[in-house]
Write a structure and sequence with these properties.
Organism: Niabella ginsengisoli
Number of helices: 18
Structural class: mainly alpha
Distance between the termini: 52 Å
Number of strands: 0
InterPro entries: CellSynth/LPSAsmb/PSIAsmb (IPR051012), TPR-like_helical_dom_sf (IPR011990), TPR_rpt (IPR019734)
Helix content: over 70%
Shape: elongated
Protein name: Tetratricopeptide repeat protein
Strand content: under 5%
Keywords: Repeat, TPR repeat
Radius of gyration: 24 Å
Length: 325
């Protein structure tokens, strides 16, 4: 295909995407269908057409469009994701499961595919299989946020979990701070501190019964601060508890368990921003009026934190997924 024709197809794809964004799916399908007739080997057009049909709820046509993409050498994880969504919309769960298995064979380090497969297994009433896939996704693709979200929610529902809902939830809140789900996960983390972690009368005994070495170390370190929790769990008391936690953690466990989230806490402490961070994390979901008063009283400090926080991207590195060890 000559360069002029390629530029024309690129222009048609952009026009179709503009139609999709405005909700005009009929025109998106029309433009992409015409473009597909010009070059039936353009997998990008096929994928966009499948997406337009999916939004249109024309699932049979969507499958017809996405299947050649999956069969082509140009396939990517997003194509398997789209195919999975189409199968799920049809409630064809066996086909969706086969699709995700095939996708993970081709892309064994795709965080989104592990996430979506886990969500399918949850729909299929297989929560054990779901959390195994979310955990695997965290291990092989630690910079993808979706698996942290789903794993945090899963663990929050488990009666005996006192660690992972808190850890994974806070990681997600940092990785996806602009996502609308971030506030709900912050509320869940705050509730986990109140209802799961510090509700215990003996965190030392809980730690002794914990088989996972990282979780055991976290519980042992929090146990030293359990007295402060008697004052109630608020953004202010959590700032005190978590400050002492980091100081103790760095003394006892930081070398054995290097962990980006705790390193970030330490950095904020050194910069005098940790109180602001704890307000950002817990203040609005605890008491909006009190949060606004705190910010007014600490405006310079909070503005400095906000500038710092929005100037960086929080990502977890490889080799820090401890829940499977």
């Amino acid at each position: 295909m000559n360069l002029l024709a390629q530029n024309s197809l690129s222009s048609e794809r952009q026009r179709a995407r503009t139609f999709m964004q405005s909700g005009d799916l009929d025109n998106a399908v029309l433009v992409l269908t015409k473009a597909n007739e010009t070059d039936k080997n353009d997998m990008g057009i096929q994928k966009d057409l499948a997406l337009a049909y999916y939004y249109q709820k024309s699932y049979t046509k969507a499958l017809e469009s996405i299947k050649p993409v999956i069969a082509s050498p140009d396939c990517d994880p997003a194509a398997y994701q789209l195919a999975g969504n189409i199968y799920k919309a049809q409630e064809n769960y066996s086909a969706a499961e086969k699709n995700y298995k095939d996708g993970l064979k081709d892309f064994p380090k795709s965080g989104p595919l592990y996430n979506d497969y886990g969500e399918l297994l949850e729909i299929m009433k297989n929560p054990t299989g779901a959390i195994q896939h979310w955990e695997k996704g965290i291990q092989v693709a630690p910079s993808y946020g979706g698996n942290y979200y789903n794993a945090a929610v899963y663990y929050y529902k488990q009666q005996d979990d006192k660690v992972w809902a808190i850890i994974y939830g806070e990681i997600y809140a940092n990785m996806e701070s602009l996502n609308p789900k971030a506030n709900s996960i912050k509320k869940m983390v705050l509730d986990a501190y109140k209802q799961k972690l510090f509700i215990s009368n003996n965190l030392k005994a809980d730690a002794a019964n914990q088989k996972n070495a990282f979780a055991k170390a976290v519980l042992e370190t929090f146990a030293k601060q359990s007295g402060i929790s008697a004052q109630g769990i608020t953004p202010e008391s959590l700032a005190m508890i978590r400050t002492r936690f980091i100081l103790d953690w760095n003394t006892s466990y930081a070398k054995e368990f290097p962990f980006k989230l705790f390193d970030y806490h330490q950095q904020l402490m050194k910069d005098g921003l940790f109180d602001s961070y704890n307000q950002w994390m817990f203040g609005p979901v605890d008491n909006q009026a009190n949060f606004e008063k705190w910010v007014q009283a600490h405006k310079e400090e909070y503005d400095k934190f906000t500038a710092f926080h929005t100037s960086r991207v929080f990502k977890m590195p490889v080799n820090q997924a401890y829940s499977l060890k």
